[in-house]
Amino acid sequence: MVDGAPLRIVYFGTPAFAVPSLRALIGSRHPVVALVSQPDRPKGRGHHVVATPTKELALESHVPVLQPTKLRDEAFLAAITGYHADLGVVAAYGRILPDALLAIPRLGMINVHASLLPKYRGAAPIHRAVIAGDEVTGVTIMRVVAELDAGPMLATSARPIGVNETSVEVERDLAEIGAAALLEVVEQLSHGPIEEVPQDDARATYAPKVDKTEAPIDWSLSAGVIHNRVRGLQPWPMASTNIGGLRCLIHRTALPERVTDAQAATIVEAAGDVLAIAAGDGSVLQIVSIQPEGRRAMSVREFLSGRTLRPGTTLGER
Q1: pTM of the predicted model, to two decimals?
Q2: Of the candidates 203, 229, 253, which is a domain's last residue?
Q3: pLDDT at residue 245 in the model
């Protein structure tokens, strides 16, 4: 196939998820004429302002960077118009794009979305898929329209979710899968229009942003449901519980093949490498990696060293 003319691309993306797609485009024959990222923000205990992950890559690659605070600002819209972009590409930019902006690139805008649409439209598709215990997720390359994540689909790529995988691991992989799918779609678009499959709106589900109020573990839920929440609430806010009067973040859990008649939130076993807690419906959840507040993450053996946790006591008891 004879190559179509290279497409001039303006890229909208902010966090680490957006980096592989940006890197793939920079390495392609299609020039990235500008990056639009959210403004740099303070991070860490020192609250130092740090560049966004996409900005770091763009500066290394000599790609102009724009970080507007208002997307409807006339000066910003004029700047984007001045790049004469053929196509806009969006990947986890983090803000709704107004119609005036969507209309600027000659071929419109496409989005790298981390779910198999129409399932999990919204801000946290990966977290919600893991929390729900889904066995499969994926990436959809879709056209950006005014309604949130409702545009027609140009390509999809599926990926299984392992029973012990966290949202961090799934997101890292989907970012690479999305980059490969995006590159194929951009190349196809350089040759002319491609098939766009409408979404079935009746099957759409919403994936709201994860909130810190979701962190405390409800031990009346089944061990399987809690296990999925532990996996899905990473890297923030992390599932948490109170053990012996100490708030602890739970990094890893396991589902042992055992049942108990103990009340939910009761310690079933606490010795060696095993810290097992009674959950709802007689199920048991085993904690594998734990982080006491103000400390680093550690193994259960480290955590239990010097602590006396007796079977039969509830988690909040000292």
Answers
A1: 0.96
A2: 203
A3: 87
